[in-house]
Design brief:
The chain is mainly β. It has a single domain (about 10-104), classed as Pleckstrin-homology domain (PH domain)/Phosphotyrosine-binding domain (PTB) (PH-domain like, Roll), CATH 2.30.29. About 10% of the residues lie in helices and about 50% in strands. The chain has one helix at about 95-104, and strands at about 10-20, 25-35, 40-45, 55, 60-70, 70-80, 85-90. The protein has a seven-stranded antiparallel β-sheet with strand order 4-3-2-1-7-6-5, with helices on one face. The longest helix is centred in the C-terminal third of the chain and has 11 residues, at about 95-104. The two termini are about 25 Å apart.
Length: about 100
C-alpha cells in the first residue's frame, strides 16, 4: 500500500482498521493512517477503493470513542463539520483520539 504524501507531510501513526459503512452493518478492512496534516483510510480489500477516505483537520468537528458490541473499547468515531460520522475499529483507540485531537 502506498500513500502519496504532500510536501512536509510525515506519518505519525498507522494501524490496521475496519471502517463501518451502511449504518454500521458492514465493515471494510484497511489501514488508518495519521499524518501531521490529515487522516487517511485506505482499504486493503479489492474492489472497495471507493471507500478510501481522506480527512483534513479543518473538516473535523469532533472525535469520540465508542465500544463495539457494547463492551469492546476499540471504536473511534470522527464527526465532520458536514455531519458525516466515520466509524473505525482500531487498537489503542485512546492514543488515536489524543493524537487526532492534537492536529485539529
Amino acid at each position: 500500500m502506498k500513500v502519496d504524501l504532500k510536501p512536509n507531510e510525515v506519518i505519525t501513526k498507522a494501524s490496521d482498521a475496519n471502517h463501518f459503512i451502511n449504518g454500521g452493518n458492514e465493515k471494510i478492512k484497511g489501514k488508518l493512517i495519521l499524518t501531521n496534516q490529515r487522516i487517511y483510510f485506505k482499504t486493503t480489500q479489492m474492489g472497495f477503493d471507493d471507500f478510501n477516505k481522506e480527512i483534513t483537520p479543518k473538516e473535523i468537528e469532533e472525535v469520540m470513542v465508542f465500544n463495539t458490541f457494547k463492551i469492546l473499547p476499540n471504536g473511534l468515531s470522527i464527526i465532520t463539520k458536514e455531519g458525516q460520522q466515520l466509524r473505525f475499529v482500531v487498537k489503542k483507540r485512546d492514543q488515536w483520539c489524543k493524537m487526532i485531537n492534537q492536529i485539529y
